[in-house]
Amino acid sequence: MAATAELQGKYQKLAQEYSKLRAQNQVLKKGVVDEQANSTSLKEQLKMKDQSLRKLQQEMDSLAFRNQQLAKRVELLQDELALSELKGKKNKKSGEASSQLSQEQKNVFDEDLQKKIEENERLHIQFFEADEKHKRLESELRSRLEVLEMETAQHQAVVDGLTRKYMETIEKLQNDKAKLEIKSQTLEREAKDCRVRTEECQQQLKNLHSDLGSKLDESLHIIREKVPFNDTRSSQFNALNVPLHNRRRQLKLRDLVGQALAFIQDLVMALLNFHTYTEQRVQIFPVDSATDTISPLNQKFSQYLHENASYVRPLEEGMLHFFESITEDTVTVLETTAKLKSFSDYLKAYVHFLRKILPYQLKSLEEECESSLCTAALRARNMELQHDMKRLTAVFEKLHTYVSLLALPSMKPDRLLRTNFSSIFTHIASALHGFHDIMKDISKHYSQKAALEHELPTSTQKLITTNDCILSSVVALTNGAGKVASFFSNNLDCFTASLSYGPKGGMEFINPLSAECMLQYKKKAAAYMKLLKKPCCDSVPYEEALANRRILLSSTESREGLAQQVQQSLEKIAKLEQEKEHWMLEAQLAKIRLEKENIKVAEKLKNSGGGQLIEASQESSLLLNAAEQEKENGTEKVLSEPIKITSLVGMLTMTACNEKVPEADTREDLIKNHYMTRIVELTSQLQLADSKSVHFHAECRALAKRLSLAEKSKESSTEEMRLARQSITRLQDELTTTKRSYEDQLSMMSDHLCSMNETLSKQREEIDTLKLASKGNSKKNKSR
């Protein structure tokens, strides 16, 4: 233990020293890095100092050289001065005379020296500037040389790349050339093969021509001899031939008519709203019928507008009947579309209604213009609306004309030629586009008129709401007209296809009676084909039928023997039944004896003190005997003196001696009464639980139905919300042009959406409550 403690102490000391050394190492590393950075900076400073020192040394050398020159010059001048002084001593006398001259020479020398010094300085400056210029030029030339070398390297790399690319291209072209040569060789071989096959095909074609010519001659001979007449030559007979049934075409036509029916329903709803809201407007503007009497003209106009439903509704009914007449089994041609005539008649009645209300509508607009509140801009809008209403009536008359022409083949086929078929559909498409353009103009002018009327000081909220409703119906009419026009234009090729059945190359329509006969023949042909496709019943093979006949004959010969065997079997069965009854009675008597012995043993054990246990065993035995006795009710007729013994399940009748056990009877009565009351209570509780479970089950089913209905209503409401959101987005797009006229309508739609959201929240709450109730009922049922 001491050794381990010492080792741990040494280990801790070593760890501490290692951590200290590691920290010191980090500090030393930082110091080394700092010293390295300082050394690099000092090296750079040393280099700069060396450069400056070299410059200064060069300057010192140049100055020393110049000083040496100047010193030599001074020495020369001093020597000359000494010589002049020696000469002065000798010629002292003459010196005074020449002193003036030496002074002048000294001045000259001084000036010369000064000039030389200035020239030396100037030369030194020029030398320094030339040296700097040379260095700068050398550095520029060196940098330019480096740039040129880099450019040369780049150009060389580009040249190498281009050379490599060109080599690759050349290699690729050579490979392509080799491939093309191989391909040309294969094509030449294929051309040779094709020539051979062409010759073979030509030979086969000649053989086929000869074979077909012989078969044609044979067929013509058979037709001349066997066929009595050719019904395709006559248009009347050809019309009775059943054409090939094109199911896809029938389904497409039904789909197209279904789409047209949906568009017509939208238009009918928009027209009903437009006429109804126009009637409301006539009642409140320019004179409100609630406060004053409107003019007789407006009264008559309102009366006619009130009848709009009787003219507009039949359009939807006529189109619906036309849609129902197109089925998958029929052939939809113009001769068989008799329901198109009824739609044309309904459209004619509506056009007559438009003609009837047009003068009153124009007069009503004139009456609004004559009002004192009508401004010039409002009068201009009313005039534009008058022109638009005339155009609307004219376009409906044009549509009725073309639809009545399409309905002619089903009534009077000689009134319409097939050459005019495509032009009628083209005119209908152009008329529908014109209807769309007119509705856009009406929407534009009416929105301007409503905006101007809203600015009037006498405009009421009722008038503003009515104008908004009329605008919404006009917008719906515009959208419906646009959908119908685009739908008809997109499917114009399908409509202009040959919808009328007739002979090939025929230019006139066939009689509708012939088309009706053709449809009857088609039904008969379809029924005949169904009969052909009906599987035949399975028949018995001939050999098996012969074998069965032999067996039947042999069985009829031995009929008497079989009858005797059956009689003997019946007698044996009767004897066995009697023996069965006898042994059943014996078994019953043995059971009765066993019960008597059990009663005696029970009485003995009662006297000894073990009565309760024996009673239970006696009751169980009596229960078993009672169950068996209920199954064998026939034995009661044989028993003589009935004695009633009570048990848990009721009364048991048996045959016994004149032995009486009054104490056992009273005890049995008490036990029986107790258990019978208990059984009655349990059965009543069971019946109550069953009735409650049935009731709860019915409630759960009702709640499930309500839940499914709520889910369906939720889906329908979500769909309505989606449609409402789509309509909101569409209205927002149109809001740029008619913003002011649609503010009230958007507020109404937002209120409707809020109410829808409230209903949705209520429905969700009801669904949650229903779910909770169903869960509670299921828990109750499980507990019950």
Automatic annotation (TrEMBL):
Localization (cell): Early endosome
Q: Which UniProt keywords apply?
A: Coiled coil, Endosome, RNA-binding
List the record's Gene Ontology CC terms alphabetically.
Answer: early endosome; membrane
- The keyword rRNA-binding belongs to this UniProt entry's keyword annotation: no
* Keyword ATP-binding listed: no
Domain of life of the source: Eukaryota
What InterPro entries does the record point to? PPP1R21, PPP1R21_C, PPP1R21_N, PPP1R21_six_helix
Segments forming a coiled coil: 4-87, 163-197, 559-593
| Pfam name, any one | PPP1R21_C
Protein phosphatase 1 regulatory subunit 21 N-terminal domain spans which residues? 12-113
Q: Name one GO molecular function term.
A: RNA binding
Give the PANTHER family listed for this entry: PROTEIN PHOSPHATASE 1 REGULATORY SUBUNIT 21, SMOOTH MUSCLE MYOSIN HEAVY CHAIN-RELATED
* Protein name stated in the entry: Protein phosphatase 1 regulatory subunit 21
Q: Which organism is it from?
A: Eublepharis macularius (Leopard gecko)
